[in-house]
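Page 37, continued from 36.
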């Protein structure tokens, strides 16, 4: 403020004709208030207020001057606070605009230098360093690193982190460079197209890449394979189908033929029908015994009692079929339906 709000005239009139040591202190306080040295002015006015033998009007003038100085100090503090915040806000806005411009320039360099990636796919990603982009943009390398940290690019091939486009590369046989990401993508494609029954080893992948003009060590292939989450060849093998039959000796063929005949003879359905006139036998399980007619027993009163089955005290006579079974030389073999019928016919 160019003009002090303190009423120095009223203060000077209140102390007209004052003696030593009040006069020097008053003059110093008035000079501090004119030069906006409020802190010194407040200290001098406080010292004047402690001087003895002051009149009532002089004390009132000192109190008014102190209040005006304190109000002025609060106003100046608020004004300085607002000015500082406005300055910080403008600086933040300028920084945001500058960072946006830096990110836009870096994105333009990425699109310009990785054109084949956007046209053909990740396998054509070229090696790119932050130092080269920083030199093209006109900033420091650390500025590029901070600018791309946590930033993403929306591309026709998907959403990619901006750091994805920065990687070291491998020099090919024709002098071109391929990024590590491109080589890793090529290795993944080779493993995807392999035969599951005969998976490729790391050495075979090295030879395939060498045929494509890419010189790479086997340990690098193993490192990239593990980063892709692909197991070793012996753990990727898929066993499908039956193994090829080896040449068998005549003795082995004879054993197999005999085993087949034994298996066929044990099957009931594979037996031949019996010749005509011969008793037909079968390996069927034993047939249940033929139930006889209920026995009739007379009691002492002459009443007939019919029992539901044979009794131990009254054995029944064997039927013709049972007689035929007893006369057979093989008691364990029961006659079939045809032989049973033929044996029962004469008895009838």
């Amino acid at each position: 403020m160019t003009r002090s709000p303190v009423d120095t005239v009223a203060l000077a009139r209140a102390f007209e004709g004052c003696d030593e040591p009040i006069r020097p202190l008053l003059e110093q306080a008035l000079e501090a208030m004119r030069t906006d040295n409020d802190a010194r002015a407040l200290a001098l006015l406080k010292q004047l207020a402690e001087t003895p033998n002051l009149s009532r009007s002089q004390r009132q003038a000192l109190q008014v001057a102190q209040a005006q100085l304190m109000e002025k100090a609060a106003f100046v503090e608020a004004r300085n606070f607002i000015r500082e915040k406005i300055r910080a806000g403008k600086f933040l806005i300028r920084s945001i605009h500058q960072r946006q411009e830096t990110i836009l320039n870096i994105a333009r360099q990425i699109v310009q230098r990785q054109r084949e990636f956007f046209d053909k796919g990740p396998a054509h990603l070229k090696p790119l360093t932050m130092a080269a982009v920083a030199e093209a943009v006109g900033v420091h390398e650390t500025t590029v690193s901070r600018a791309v940290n946590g930033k993403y690019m929306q591309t026709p091939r998907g959403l990619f982190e901006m750091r994805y486009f920065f990687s070291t590369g491998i020099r090919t046989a024709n002098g071109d460079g391929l990024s590590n990401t491109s080589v890793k993508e090529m290795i993944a494609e080779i493993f995807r197209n392999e035969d599951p029954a005969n998976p490729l080893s790391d050495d075979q992948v090295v030879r395939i890449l060498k045929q494509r003009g890419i010189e790479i060590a086997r340990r690098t292939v193993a490192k990239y394979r593990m980063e892709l989450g692909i197991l070793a060849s012996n753990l990727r093998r898929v066993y499908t189908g039956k193994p090829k039959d080896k040449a068998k000796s005549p003795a082995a063929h004879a054993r197999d033929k005999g085993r087949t005949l034994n298996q066929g003879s044990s099957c009931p359905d594979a037996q031949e029908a019996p010749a005509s006139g011969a008793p037909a036998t079968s390996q069927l399980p034993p047939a249940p015994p033929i139930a006889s007619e209920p026995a009739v027993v007379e009691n002492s009163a002459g009443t007939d009692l019919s029992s539901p089955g044979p009794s131990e005290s009254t054995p029944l006579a064997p039927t013709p079929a049972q007689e035929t079974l007893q006369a057979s030389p093989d008691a364990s073999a029961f006659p079939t339906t045809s032989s049973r019928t033929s044996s029962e016919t004469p008895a009838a």
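Residues 8-84 form one domain. Flag for discussion at group meeting. The radius of gyration is 58 Å.
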